[in-house]
Fold this protein.
Amino acid sequence: MQQAQDVDIIQSVLQGNKAAFAVLVERYQSYVFTIVGRLIPMREEAEDVSQEVFVKAYLSLAGFKGTSKFSTWLYTIAHTTAISHLRKSGPNVVFADENTMAAITDNRTAFHQPQHNSLRSAVNTCIKLLPPDDAEIITLFYMAEQSIEEIGVIMRMEPNTAKVKLHRARQKLKDIVERSYGKEKTLLYRN
Amino acid sequence: MTQEDKAYKNVMDALEPEQPSMRFSKNVMDAIEGMEVAPVSKRYVNPLVVKGIAAVLILCILISIFVVFTAAGSLPEYTNKLPQHFSLYLLGINIVLLMILAERWLSSKKRIQDLQDNR
């Protein structure tokens, strides 16, 4: 249903109704921003790159063949733009390695701050502690509702590789939650 | 879906994506103000050229195989040092490689079909 609406909007934009593109921006901005944000932690930088994603999408809109969902096509642009940005940024961007992340989570800072009093923000914080590609794959699967095949297309990997990577990312997330919650780890299995 | 998968799905469903600044949409629309959708670019390489090159390469391979099998008696000395049935082994390896290539091509076709079905 959403895909049909997206295609109608795209047709409208291609026929010269530039304002219709704002509907697509409104619809997908938070997802694109979140996906880019998983790779680029600085908020301002992530926002600039997200804007670049939509500009690129607009310019190449005529190239969208409709062989996949519009969201998959857009998230592929988001992924490649963020990766290119990181390559250009070079050594200025440094991600924490697993030991550093473990140390961070051991301190249980994630859950002892007042703003992290809800399960939603707690899990969100844990996702941010994952390595960027793991955080991205978790976001694509659970938040952006992309299938394993679609994630394979977005992240340029075989579906089986994406499946294994998602499983490992989920395991790492579980470890971080357990380390941070301790006895409260069962919180993840409620609802 | 396993129990753990369901549990994760439940927790993750409660999550919401992060929101960019309020001006995000306006900034994008401002950025594309003077721009136009780029026309679909033509393919850089004519597919006929690619198919032509592939045909020449396949022809070369076939001629080589034919020469190896028909002119076995007049092959250079060093070929005698090769293991017995070497050319057959080589042929076998090539067949296996062809099968791997065909499998990859078919699976990529299936992936594209699955994506179209999931639209």
Q: What stands out?
A: The longest helix of chain A spans residues 159-181. Residues 98-189 of chain A form a domain with the Arc Repressor Mutant, subunit A fold (CATH 1.10.10).
